[in-house]
Amino acid sequence: MGQFIEVARVGELTRGTMKAVNTAGRDILLARVGDKYYAVSNRCPHMGGILSQGKLEGTIVTCPRHGSQFDLTDGHVIRWTNWSGLVLAAAKLIRSPHSLPTFNVKIDGEKILVEV
Length: 116
Hints:
Shape: elongated
Largest sheet: 4 strands, antiparallel
Strand content: 35-45%
Number of helices: 1
Helix content: under 10%
Distance between the termini: 8 Å
Order of helices and strands: EEEEEEEEHEEE
CATH architecture: 3-layer Sandwich
CATH topology: Rieske Iron-sulfur Protein
Number of strands: 11
Oligomer: single chain
CATH class: Mainly Beta
CATH superfamily: Rieske [2Fe-2S] iron-sulphur domain
Number of domains: 1
């Protein structure tokens, strides 16, 4: 079990926004969807795109590099790339789809804490 570290304050993120935070040597994407906060790796497991520069729609984050999509609730893959056909099949052989690492989040007063 890890340690909870403050990464932001509640007022820093409005609903439907995300930001990059770095704590304990980890590059983390912090997102607010409604009144819930999510923390995941800020690097796309496909080809290392910076997810905080991508698009957030509900709990789905889209990588700006190749359109890979992940659900912030548990990190599972929605779409591995925005490619199709043989290109997608080859990409899956070279680097098989895998989930985005997630981190536990808790709120303590005005502090947003992430377990690392």
